Amino acid sequence: MESIRTIFYEEPELKDPVLIEGLPGVGNVGKLAAEHLLDQLDAVKFADIFSKHFPPQVTVDDDGLIKLVNNELYYAKDVGSGQDLIILVGDYQGLTPEGQYELSDNIIEVARKFGVKRIYTLGGYGVGKMIETPRVLGAATDEELIEEMKENGVEFSKGEPGSGIVGASGLLLGLGKIYGIGAVCLMGETSGYFVDPKGAEAVIKILAKILDMDIDLSDLEEKAEQIDMITSKLKEIEAPNEPKREDLGYIG
Amino acid sequence: MESIRTIFYEEPELKDPVLIEGLPGVGNVGKLAAEHLLDQLDAVKFADIFSKHFPPQVTVDDDGLIKLVNNELYYAKDVGSGQDLIILVGDYQGLTPEGQYELSDNIIEVARKFGVKRIYTLGGYGVGKMIETPRVLGAATDEELIEEMKENGVEFSKGEPGSGIVGASGLLLGLGKIYGIGAVCLMGETSGYFVDPKGAEAVIKILAKILDMDIDLSDLEEKAEQIDMITSKLKEIEAPNEPKREDLGYIG
Amino acid sequence: MESIRTIFYEEPELKDPVLIEGLPGVGNVGKLAAEHLLDQLDAVKFADIFSKHFPPQVTVDDDGLIKLVNNELYYAKDVGSGQDLIILVGDYQGLTPEGQYELSDNIIEVARKFGVKRIYTLGGYGVGKMIETPRVLGAATDEELIEEMKENGVEFSKGEPGSGIVGASGLLLGLGKIYGIGAVCLMGETSGYFVDPKGAEAVIKILAKILDMDIDLSDLEEKAEQIDMITSKLKEIEAPNEPKREDLGYIG
Amino acid sequence: MESIRTIFYEEPELKDPVLIEGLPGVGNVGKLAAEHLLDQLDAVKFADIFSKHFPPQVTVDDDGLIKLVNNELYYAKDVGSGQDLIILVGDYQGLTPEGQYELSDNIIEVARKFGVKRIYTLGGYGVGKMIETPRVLGAATDEELIEEMKENGVEFSKGEPGSGIVGASGLLLGLGKIYGIGAVCLMGETSGYFVDPKGAEAVIKILAKILDMDIDLSDLEEKAEQIDMITSKLKEIEAPNEPKREDLGYIG
User: A217 at the D interface (CB within 8 A)?
Assistant: First the structure.
């Protein structure tokens, strides 16, 4: 068995598509954001990615149907001002460093095959405390992109993230740069303690502005309110010692 | 040395055989069940599977004879209503995730070579407490199979197993699905604390019904009684704090 | 770089040589025994084995000269009743299970190239307590060999070693069996707490009998006496709780 | 993706260049020394080395620009008495033993391609206490080199480093020896507790003497003074229990 097996169910014709990655990470911000996009854009799955670098495991749904753990590729056409999108989601990132490199390299190959001109990786930036209004921090492969992002409200803050960007959200930028594909990481601030729909909302708002999309956020807002209620109750029960900001790196 | 070396001692002619897997896992339910089948069906070993993914170890028998740790393939012809079987047993599963994928992929190749049309993987479902009458839970690659299993007494219960199925019992379903081989995992309930012949008995009863086999269970019943006696005595000595059900995943 | 690089400095012509392995393990019994043989037989190094599976490390001798960590192959001609020997020694075994398999498989290839007809792997059998007169336990690839070993004083004891034989001393038997090379593991009893010349002495005595060699053991006896003195002193200082026998497996 | 991808931006013509390695290690002595050389010699980057054996990570600079973690190759021409240099620096060494071997083997290939005749690997030698005047210890591939080093003030001390040399600083010597490239490891004494510019200074002084270079050391001296001030203050606050010398190995 090859290390990675990508099975295409369709070979969509896409015009200069933008690739958006949202895999599990800090606060699952990127995963939540990308999955919300899938729903709102009625995106179509066109490929499954299976790999030895994922856990040797199947998930079982409520009916008893199994699914080998995987990553999935979706497309959405004519989004916002006419842009085509490829969206990468999944339950896992690679289990080892080598696996992470191979999986991201495989995605870059897919990106090149479909003529991807820009990559956005979505993630959370763990700050170790509850955030009322999360900022969206950025990192990118070149200066022009950084300027463009700033105009759209992305913040670039000296020393943040100090520990770099780990995982697919980082590697797709690093490998993209080698292959000449402009790439941006959008990191929504999050405590890092919970799955964080508020961070995901902040990321999508910025991405919607960049891509000129109109995305309904009511689902995420509802989830954010539920999380707020739970954490408020938890706060009443116990006043925790807040871990220091520097304890929390970014994983992507 | 290749990663996996399968040595065939015979190339049996089998008609649409069913593959049954019973490797070590929770309560060794699957291993016990498959080994009981081997005995009762006078199955014939036709292949050894050696692999770098197993421990670098030989076992030594009572006479001093060594055996490199392996997995083994047996066949049994004209079972039940005329069905041929391939049975996979062994002392170990792969030590790493990559190893698990490669070993299961290798089994699927063997399955395809012999024209296997259906796979049953046997395992235990750890529930963290002693079970009087273990249920047999199921998971499968498609809905028709689920219906067929329900008719044979297999239970499909929402949220069970919540954590999915890990190891060969899961991968053979996941990879089988990719290659179009219908596959079912039969999980006998077990505490997960002991090697559990009672869970194995429950699994075989169901499998015998499915395959229309007549299997003598007295050996397993005897072993189950011995375990019952031991655990009863242990209970008298100490009243343990039962771990919570959610602490115990399924590994297969 | 290939995983294993074997550099031959000479291609000796050997007649049906016997391969003897003594790599680090429990009590370093096998290593001590094999190195003692090298000295006593004036064996000649004919190959270095370097590998990614060893630690990424050089050793530095007293003059400041470095050596990449390795395994080494020596030969000795016309030993005992006219037998040629190949002796495998080294500072390390492979760091991973895969590495162990690849390294042992590589040795089997060398063995086949030189027409090796018999393999003896030397090791320690940890019993968790000080032993006055260590037995030499055996395990082998076939029954004839077991009989032959018994005649030479090797003991075969039901349930020993219960946990099998791990590492090169096991794999060379397991892989040898696959390739039809008769192989024996000779395990000298040892506490497992110290480097144990007494265990090594016991192993060499048996091996000398088998191969009809006359080996001076005074060096090992001297070392054994030194260790005895140290352990006697330690016993005076503290009366330790002896670990139970079943806590100690065999690694070889 | 290949395991290691070396991207050359220039193919400089170099005459019998000397390769100098300074990757992270004990006290970052080698890294500091090599980076100081880069600055003082206005060395030119001619290659990036990316690898699956590095962490799956990008660094982010103060402007928000990312860089995939890597090793880098620089050259400097006509240094000292007319010598050309290749200098290897980077943020990481390989994460696994196999990775370390592959990365060092790749460097040796580059060295052979450019006709490198001598390798100096720079590192720290951790002694577990503050050192007023650090010695520079050596290890080398042959006796002539050791004599040459002694004449330049490198110390060769029996039993130091007792645990050998781990990582690139060791492997480049070990693999260099196999390929017939003379190689020396220069180890500046360091406590091992801090990034240690004083150890780096000592190493550069020796290297400058060997290569007849005139290197300004004021930057490193300044940094060393800053570290001295910090450690003096720390000493006032707490009188730590000094770990024993034997607790600290050398990693290079």
Answer: no
Q: Hey, of B98, B100, B171, which one would you mutate to test binding to chain A, going by the most A CBs within 10 A of its CB?
A: B98
And the tokens for C221? 């006896």
ipTM: 0.90
Which residues 6+ apart lie within 8 Å of D206 measured at CB? D136, D152, D153, D154, D186
State whether residue D9 sits within 8 Å of chain A by CB: no
Q: Do C66 and D161 touch (CB under 8 A)?
A: no
Strands D4-8 and D44-51 come out as antiparallel
- Residue by residue, pLDDT tens for chain A (252 residues) are 799 999 999 999 999 999 999 999 999 999 999 999 999 999 999 999 999 999 999 999 999 999 999 999 999 999 988 999 999 999 999 999 999 999 999 999 999 999 999 999 999 999 988 888 999 999 999 999 999 999 999 999 998 888 899 999 999 999 999 999 999 999 999 998 889 999 999 999 999 999 999 999 999 999 989 888 887 887 777 655 544 444 444 444
Alpha carbon distances (Å) from C221 to A243, C187, C227: 60, 18, 10
Of A104, A165, A177, the CB nearest to D60: A165
B65-89 burial, b at 16+ Cβ within 10 Å, e below that, comes to bbbbbbbbbbbbbebbeebbbbbbb
CA distance C149 to C155: 8
User: pTM here?
Assistant: 0.91
Cα–Cα dist A45/C137, whole Å? 62
pLDDT at C177: 97
CA–CA distances in Å: residue B224 to residues A212, B131, B186: 66, 12, 19
**Please, where are the H alpha helices in A27-137?**
29-40, 97-113
Nearest of C180, C164, C116, C112 to residue B68 by alpha carbon: C164
The verdict on C92 touching D (C-beta cutoff 8 Å) is: no
Residues 6+ apart with CB under 8 A from A51: A3, A4, A5, A70, A71, A94, A99, A102, A103
Those chains having 3 or more beta-carbon pairs within 8 angstroms of chain B are A, C
- Among candidates C26, C34, C40, which has minimal Cα distance to C89? C34
Chain D: closest CA distance from residue C2 (Å): 9
**Cα diameter, chain D:** 54
Is the Cβ–Cβ distance between B114 and B86 less than 8 Å? Answer: yes
The answer, yes or no, to whether C and B have at least 3 beta-carbon pairs within 8 Å is yes
Instruction: Report the SS3 class of residue A83.
Output: strand
Report angle CA A102, A74, A194 to the nearest 5 degrees. Answer: 75
pLDDT tens digits along B101-154: 999 999 999 999 999 999 999 999 999 888 889 999 999 999 999 999 999 999
C31 neighbors C25 (Cβ within 8 angstroms): yes
Residues of chain D with C-beta less than 8 angstroms from the C-beta of A178: 5, 7, 50, 68
The two beta strands, C182-190 and C118-126, are: parallel
Q: Which residues contact A55 (CB under 8 A, 6 or more apart)?
A: A69, A92, A95, B97, B166
Token reading at B185 = 């995992």
